[in-house]
Design brief:
Blueprint lengths: L2 E5 L13 H18 L5 E4 L11 H15 L3 E4 L25 E3 L6 E6 L2 E7 L6 H13 L10 E6 L14 H8 L4 E4 L6 E2 L7 E3 L16 E6 L7 E4 L5 E11 L1 H14 L5 E10 L19 E8 L15 H10 L6 H14 L2
Parallel strand pairs: 1-2, 2-3, 3-4, 6-7, 7-8, 8-10, 13-14, 14-15
Antiparallel strand pairs: 1-11, 5-6, 9-10, 11-12
Helix pairs in contact: 1-2, 6-7
Length: 365
């Protein structure tokens, strides 16, 4: 049975919210995804971009990726796409093309190498694509160019797969590939795979089966509801993929309007929320409140009290009602800061006002 496994957006080296322990979470999720994929004994392993989170990966991240790719390449063929997080500077260079020098089974898609021909179970399969390109004009022009080259290729593959790392219209904004461009190009392929959007989903507007491959770990609380994992295609059946889940770190985001409360009541409410959600390692609490009292008495440093959380973020947005503060001066200076404190009813907070003036004088342009 021919099997193709597709893994994307692993973001190795990302220190989420500057938490070092999160480095290991991304590494574990990546290693788990590759291990589970290799259990299928795939003939082809596709990486859809953003293996790394940074353009210049640290040695630890580079070692993990290279060792993993080299081990897998000894057992199967590998195709690597290049994501937006991996393109460095004005030259738009990346480390990924070097990977093809390490092993004959590792192939990297780029504008210089947009067509890769492989044999899977006796059938010729074409993998086509290029590195992430910023901007709609550049990405669509390259997509059109690569697709137009298909009929003129010396080898005629039985199946053609387009592999990108781009945003498609309607799935992410800003986008680089319009629905019209995708529909026109996808008519020439049997399968379209793309990274960049971290949620596994079908791109229903394409002319052939098309999918965002998803991610192995979540990179923000906006993705807290996303299921993490990778795609498996069996016997070149591109219409019915299997999505294999990975064990990403449990993450939860809570948003509430708590109404009118004193700082003490808000602190107690936050404490109850934290203790009621101790089944996750990453917790974000965002409250909107009509604060009855001095908002400076609201506690924010909860991480010290609950160190078991990898990330514990708490934010409170005080309601101002219909109050509008009008500042007479348009240009900020120490006098404007003092005026703001007076009109905000905080004239008695001379210590805070003086601190703001001090920071202004030290850091203003």
């Amino acid at each position: 049975m021919s099997v193709i496994c597709c893994i994307s957006d692993c973001h190795i080296g990302y220190m989420h919210r500057l938490k070092k322990e999160r480095l290991e979470d991304y590494e574990k999720a990546f290693s788990e995804a590759v291990a589970k994929a290799m259990d299928y004994s795939p003939e082809l392993l596709i990486f859809g971009g953003d293996l790394f989170h940074h353009t210049r990966p640290d040695p630890r991240s580079m070692k993990l990726i290279i060792n993993t790719l080299m081990t897998a390449a000894g057992k199967t063929k590998i195709v690597v796409a290049i994501g937006n997080h991996e393109l460095d500077g004005h030259l738009k260079t990346a480390y990924q093309p070097l990977f093809s020098e390490f092993h004959e089974n590792i192939h990297v898609l780029s504008t210089e190498n947009p067509h890769i021909m492989l044999e899977l179970s006796g059938k010729k399969i074409g993998i086509h694509g290029f590195q992430y390109l910023r901007g709609k004009e550049a990405a669509e022009a390259e997509l059109k160019k690569v697709t137009a080259e298909l009929p003129g290729m010396e080898e005629k593959p039985e199946k053609n797969i387009l592999c990108l790392h781009q945003a498609v219209e309607g799935y992410l904004a800003p986008y680089e590939i319009s629905l019209r461009a995708l529909k026109d190009a996808s008519a020439k392929y049997d399968l379209v795979l793309t990274g960049h959007v971290h949620k596994y989903q079908k791109i229903k507007e394409a002319s052939c089966p098309a999918y965002y491959m998803g991610a192995t770990e979540r990179t923000s609380f906006n993705e807290s509801e996303n299921v993490t994992g990778f795609l498996v295609f069996k016997d070149l059946d591109f219409k019915n993929p299997v999505f294999v889940e990975t064990n990403a770190v449990p993450m939860r985001r809570i948003k509430e309007d708590v109404g009118k409360k004193t700082p003490a009541e808000i602190n107690e409410h936050i404490k109850k929320l934290i203790e009621a959600n101790n089944d996750v390692r990453c917790l974000q609490i965002s409250l909107e409140a009509d604060v009855s009292g001095d908002s400076f008495d609201i506690k924010y440093d909860w991480e010290k009290e609950y160190p078991q959380y990898a990330i514990l973020g708490v934010s409170i947005l005080p309601k101002i009602g219909n109050e509008v503060i009008k500042i007479e001066k348009a240009q900020i200076d120490p006098k404007v800061i003092e005026e703001y404190f007076e009109k905000k009813g905080m004239g008695a907070r001379k210590d805070l006002r003086d601190a703001c003036v001090k920071f202004y004088e030290k850091y203003s342009g």
